[in-house]
Amino acid sequence: MRDKWYGDKRDYVKWSVLLQLASQYGASRVIQVAYYRPETLDKSIEIDGHKYLMPDAVIRHLSRNVMDIERLIHSGVEIKVFNSPLSDRETYLRKVLVELPALSVHSPCIIFLDPDTGLEPKKPLLEHVLESEIAEIWNAMRANDVLVFYQHATTRNAKKGRQWVEPKRRQVESALGVGDGAAKTAHGEAATDVAFFLCTKRPRLFGPTATPNITSFMLDDPHQDTENGWPVLRLPRPNRHNLPAIYAVRIDSALSPEIAACAAASRAIGTRYGEHET
After folding, report:
1. Which end of the chain is more exposed for a tag (fewer CB within 10 A), N or C?
2. Is there a contact between 235 and 245 (Cβ–Cβ < 8 Å)?
3. Are 19 and 30 within 8 A, CB to CB?
4. How close are the terminal C-alpha atoms of the chain, in Å?
């Protein structure tokens, strides 16, 4: 993203799409990773062979700054711009990965990657995002956050309508390691040479990087089934996915709610599968 492009017709579509998505997903914050590339304005003019400088009043009045978008207020959605200058890929990516957890504290968030052009072609330049880079950012995102990616029409297919969109959408899915159809598209008639790809980060149920997803149940019915003295709520096993049964446990404890919940869940599951507490 560059200052000179701020407020053009693509920005009308861009921020309309982002705020609509924030409303649909209940996101309170949009984080724009701007891939900011600052430029210096040549302030010289020439009239009849004489050179002058542009008046400061003109520059102040007409200047564009990508940070100005943070002043946009709509339905309580906060916009934060990550505007560190992009000059070196590796350094920039490391900064994004360090700053992202602090910026996206209010989940769900819209994480918007806004490069000059889009996802890498066969010979990527600095205005492109590499597949490995979007994958690292995706892996660092919180569950339920929504990734949105800016894509400009590829030069080769720009004059062929929107035929360039689907190949790029599939490339995004491949880079993220998600299934076919996981990445959706958005666009606007005011700027038909750009598209936006969006994908929701789903919680992982199993594996070392599984996302904790704790749900509490109130089991006040004395006739509820019990097992080893513990009240349990038996949920039907979803056979289609062959997932294990789920148990919800309620106990009274002087421990903190978090520790108590973990201990109760561990005991319920352990005794169910023949394990013993130590």
Report:
1. C
2. yes
3. yes
4. 56
Q: Which tokens go with 161?
A: 């309508």
Cβ-in-10-Å burial (0-12, 13-18, 19+) of 152 comes to buried
Query: How far from the centroid of its chain's Cα atoms is residue 108's Cα?
Result: 9
Looking at the fold, whether 27 and 151 belong to one and the same domain comes out as yes
**pTM across the whole model:** 0.68
For tokens 């959408």, what's the residue? 169
Which among 277, 273, 231, 263 is positioned nearest to 250, based on CA atoms? Answer: 231
Number of compact structural domains in the chain = 2
> Residue 213 falls within a domain, yes or no?
no
| Token pair belonging to 144 | 């339920």
Rounded Cα–Cα distance for residues 208 and 204 (Å): 9
User: Residue 96 carries which DSSP code?
Assistant: H
Domain that holds residue 245: 226-272
Model pLDDT for residues 99-146, shown as the tens digit of each residue: 988 887 777 999 999 998 999 999 999 999 999 999 999 999 999 999
Q: What is the pLDDT of residues 8-59, one digit of tens each?
A: 788 999 999 999 999 999 999 999 998 987 777 788 989 989 998 988 888 7
**Average per-residue pLDDT in the chain?**
77
- Among 114, 115, 110, 35, smallest CA distance to 79 is for 110
Q: Please check whether residue 117 is in contact with residue 127, taking contact to mean a CB–CB distance below 8 angstroms.
A: yes
- What are the residues whose beta carbons fall under 8 Å from the beta carbon of 192, sequence distance 6 or more? 162
